[in-house]
Amino acid sequence: MPPARVHDAEISDHAAPSAAGRTWVFFRRWLANPLEMGSIVPSSPALGRRVAAAVRAGPAGAVIELGAGTGAITRAMLEGGIAPARLTVIEIVPEMASILRATYPGVTVLCGDAWQLPALLGAETRGRIGTVVCGIPLVLLPRARQRALVEAIEAVAPGRGFLHYTYCITSPLPARRLGLSGARIAWTPANFPPASVWRYAPLA
Ligand SMILES: C[S@@+](CC[C@H](N)C(=O)[O-])C[C@H]1O[C@@H](n2cnc3c(N)ncnc32)[C@H](O)[C@@H]1O
Fold first, then answer.
1. Is residue 2 situated within a structural domain?
2. How many domains is the chain built from?
């Protein structure tokens, strides 16, 4: 099994790139692994604002972002008033984790696999999570893999569920089969492609 978290020494130092630089890195990663990236370009500020609004409307506590990429949603959450100290962002690609560290000082950046969430997060974060935001493309994953991520989130943030943004018109997850309720809470045409924000919560 791979280590849950890539050691800092394995991540090269990276200066904070420009917006064009971040988009280029994103596109390069999409060419390398389109299924893992799920998008050619980073999310738009409009989608980020919708996610930030949903986070603000949610409970207090730490905010965990899964699949932070080059930080489009991270940036929107910071601009939307979420304090950097509340944010822990997780990204599997070391180059992107390095960009996140250079670009968003004060935000905790973990380079690792979101499916290993309980091992990735320290005990001090595990007990105080308000909201989990998932940007990892889930729709095409096998049901068992979807279920494993739902369980990993439940293990660190019991009862909280998660927000998930997607280009799907209908729910990207078979909510009931995964023991979840699901509701589309926002949509924006100002994203490529147009995107929705879903809120999933464990069924009582
Ligand atoms: C659709 S992109 C979203 C990026 C960014 N949040 C945005 O909205 O522009 C999905 C991101 O999830 C990351 N990712 C995919 N699988 C992952 C995993 N198992 N653990 C952590 N991150 C993962 C990808 O590397 C990619 O950066």
1. no
2. 1
